Amino acid sequence: MDSERYKKERTLDRLLVIDGSNLLFQMFLGMPARIVNEQGKAIQGTLGFTGAMLKIIRMVKPTHLLVVLDGEHENARCELDAEYKANRADYSEVSEEENPFSQLPDVYRALDYLKIRYIETTDCEADDLIAAYALSYGRAAEVVISSFDSDFFQLITERVSVLRYRGEKTTVCTPEFVAKKFGIVPAQYADLKSLVGDHADNIRGAEKVGVKTAAELLREFGTLENILLYAEKIRKLSVRESIMRNSERLRINYRLIKLGEGSALPFELQDLEYCDDGKTTNEVLKGIGLR
After folding, report:
1. Which pLDDT tens digit goes with each residue over 88-128?
2. What architecture does CATH give domain 11-179+259-274?
3. Which CATH class is domain 181-257?
4. By Cβ atoms counted within 10 A, which residue in 14, 224, 277, 284 is the most buried?
5. Residue ranges per domain, the chain?
6. Model's pTM, two decimal places?
7. For 123-154, how does the pLDDT look when each residue is reduced to its tens digit (9 = 90+)?
8. Cβ-contact 147, 19 below 8 angstroms
């Protein structure tokens, strides 16, 4: 398990921001079977979410903590591209047994019981709000983003890391991780993803441009915009033609993928102070009447 980073002596505040929707889906869909309590109520999502969250907290040892979840509202990115995330399942049309959101009220009760601050976004994606916290506090504090969403790689610095929780196979993503995996620096990740696309979000990249080629272009030209401005200098003909043919598409991709600090912060850092009192998952479930 790659979590030694958080065992070092802490000299700064450490803010842990958990991508709550991502964790709920991971736990709900990752359970081997539906779990019900003595009253016949399904609890596998709440059980998995609470247990994983407590393990993440004890791994990171934060001084401050926030859970961010996506709310139900219009997505401004769909105005840029109507196909953005159009491949996602519509959970309003699935049965309660298959719907992770059916257990969200119990997840909120667990968070309230643990006195953990949480927020459901009302005018932006959870990614944008999480990014706003990382960019606002990542210079004065350590920030750990817990999520499997690779878009957060663009935010990584020496003080901002991304934790991908998988029990003993948990990975802490740092600048060194991004350099080794992609051959770029984190600040270039949105550029790279714009070039290659993102199947998970239904974003189409430039044909003939895979991760290796995109990284080579970024090492040569620095940014996506420079690649587009000096596309005639790209040596490989098929790549050059693809970049030039898809230039408008690639600029839209960048606007879809790039995360900024424009979202208003619902809580200041001092509002998010947290002290782990050692409660177990069973204690939490008993405390909210699920066990």
Report:
1. 777 777 777 788 889 999 999 999 999 999 999 988 899 99
2. 3-Layer(aba) Sandwich (3.40)
3. mainly alpha
4. 224
5. 11-179+259-274, 181-257
6. 0.93
7. 889 999 999 999 999 999 999 999 999 999 99
8. yes
